[in-house]
Automatic annotation (TrEMBL):
Monomer. The keyword Cytoplasm applies. Phosphoenolpyruvate binds at K28, G100, R128, Q175, R357, R405. Its EC number is 2.5.1.19. This is 3-phosphoshikimate 1-carboxyvinyltransferase. It is found in: Cytoplasm. Residues 13-438 form the Enolpyruvate transferase domain. Pathway: Metabolic intermediate biosynthesis; chorismate biosynthesis; chorismate from D-erythrose 4-phosphate and phosphoenolpyruvate: step 6/7. 3-phosphoshikimate binds at K28, S29, R33, S173, Q175, D326, K353. The active site is at D326 (proton acceptor). Keywords: Amino-acid biosynthesis, Aromatic amino acid biosynthesis, Cytoplasm, Transferase. It comes from Pseudorhizobium tarimense. InterPro entries: Enolpyruvate_Tfrase_dom, Enolpyruvate_Tfrase_sf, EPSP_synthase, EPSP_synthase_CS, RNA3'P_cycl/enolpyr_Trfase_a/b.
Length: 455
């Protein structure tokens, strides 16, 4: 389903202390991969805690279109996979809606098959660069017909025998790494991915869990070499998806900023490739207590108790970006209320997300009265802890550009700004966090829809 029929504006206002205990919906990255690997593996995969956001549901639909049987019984998703190498040719274009992850990983997964598969998405996804995935697939022998600049719509056709490659990932991207590895699943021999900067490792861990012969070697400089033996058997698994740390970021930052708040967020994924925001906020002086750390399904998980804190500005180093890449918009909002200056470095990848997030964040901050500078790959925010004068005084809403994280970040901003903050669309939040409004208002946040208008 592609979003974008009608905009649904929403407004948030200065709120009193946020209080309560919440459970965050499942991690989006792990949920996409659960549908993909379950849909591909032999036998049955059972998933609980799956994120039922639009992005993930679209991945489920595309796996169904390629032969997986997927149903929900009670709280459990039950999948009968096709078996590795046995996906069926999709009869219609595969529509990934707003999801870069769903689209790029599936390009790898099915692009190497010797039949046509066509990829489409919404207006946001159609603008995003696909060459980063299509280029290594071309090296593996895949033919590509794509719109100008390697954009969607794109049609891929694999050769009769794909070529195993050694690919050094040129940018810090788990999606690119994963696409090459997933192409390697249906390629004879060893596909090797060299990852100079570590990104989220869910593909590696989950493929090992499904029985793939995959090894990871890390050298003294931290460069990782991932080797996958193609055309092996994958076997269905039982998966319990932990809570999404990227969704957690919104109630977490809200609790830090709203005076008197004390919020507990349960069952949060604490994989070290995903915890950069928590580390950064702790450096800024945040009171985040990590409670009951435990291992669940091979992943670190914990409960987080978050209390209102006076934050101070810090410099966030470029090498931390991969571990908090989706959290910069909400970190920028936290920085707007910190004492002093926060400097964020190494943000080039933000320009190719659902929106150009660096511009979207800087524009939104400026619209709401925040003193900030957007550089080519940097953002500098000079904070004002009182929030005095902040808010949409001009009456113009924040433009979200079909970007869920821009919408949620600025709704958090309104909870502590002197004036209300309005965003032009909150409907897009359903791509990653459909429960956002209810969860936030349940804690005491004043967020409400404002009258709709046609797009
Ligand atoms: O592999 C994944 O699940 C993801 C990787 C990241 O994208 P990039 O690979 O483009 O950095 C991230 O921004 C996205 O939300 C999810
Ligand atoms: C970048 C994101 O997702 P995707 O690339 O899957 O659209 C995100 O969820 O912030």
């Amino acid at each position: 389903m592609s979003h974008g029929v009608a905009l649904k504006p929403a407004r948030s206002q200065k709120s009193a202390d946020l209080k309560g205990t919440v459970r965050i919906p499942g991690d989006k990255s792990i949920s996409h991969r659960s549908f993909m690997f379950g849909g591909l593996a032999s036998g049955e995969t059972r998933i609980t805690g799956l994120l039922e956001g639009e992005d993930v549901i679209n991945t489920g639909k595309t796996m169904r279109a390629m032969g997986a049987k997927i149903e929900k019984i009670g709280d459990e998703w039950i999948i009968q996979g096709t078996g590795n190498g046995a996906l069926l040719a999709p009869e219609a274009p595969l529509d990934f809606g707003n999801a870069g992850t769903g689209c790029r990983l599936t390009m790898g997964l099915v692009g190497v098959y010797d039949f046509d598969s066509t990829f489409i998405g919404d207006a946001s996804l159609t603008k995003r660069p696909m060459g980063r995935v299509l280029n290594p697939l071309r090296e593996m022998g895949v033919q590509v017909k794509a719109a100008e600049g390697d954009r969607l719509p794109a049609t891929l056709r694999g050769p009769s025998t794909p070529n195993p490659i050694t690919y050094r990932v040129p940018m810090a991207s788990a999606q690119v790494k994963s696409a090459v590895l997933l192409a390697g699943l249906n390629t004879p021999g060893i596909t090797t991915v060299i990852e100079p900067v570590m990104t989220r490792d869910h593909t590696e861990k989950m493929l090992q869990g499904f029985g793939a012969n995959l090894t990871v070697e890390t050298d003294a400089e931290g460069v990782r070499t991932i080797r996958l033996e193609g055309r092996g058997k994958l076997t269905g698994q039982v998966i319990d998806v932990p809570g999404d740390p990227s969704s957690t970021a919104f109630p977490l930052v809200a609790a830090l900023l709203v005076e008197g708040s004390d919020v507990t967020i349960e069952n949060v994924l604490m994989n070290p490739t995903r915890t950069g925001l928590i580390l950064t906020l702790q450096e800024m002086g945040a009171d985040i207590e990590i409670m009951n750390p435990r291992l669940a399904g091979g992943e670190d998980v914990a409960d987080l108790r978050v209390r209102h804190s006076q934050l101070k500005g810090v410099t966030v180093p470029a090498d931390r970006a991969p571990s908090m890449i989706d959290e910069y918009p909400v970190l920028a909002v936290a920085a707007a209320f910190a004492e002093g200056t926060t400097t964020m470095l190494g943000l080039e990848e933000l320009r190719v997300k659902e929106s150009d997030r660096l511009s979207a964040v800087a524009d939104g901050l400026k619209l709401n009265g925040v003193d900030c500078d957007e550089g080519e790959d940097t953002l500098v925010v000079r904070g004002r802890p009182s929030g005095k004068g902040y808010g949409n005084v001009s009456g113009a809403p924040v433009v979200t550009h079909l970007d869920h994280r821009i919408a949620m970040s600025f709704l958090v901003m309104g909870l502590v700004s002197e004036h209300a903050v309005t965003v032009d669309d909150a409907g897009i939040i359903a791509t990653s966090f459909p429960e956002f409004m209810d969860l936030m208002t349940g804690l005491g946040a004043r967020i409400e829809p404002v009258e709709s208008r046609a797009a």
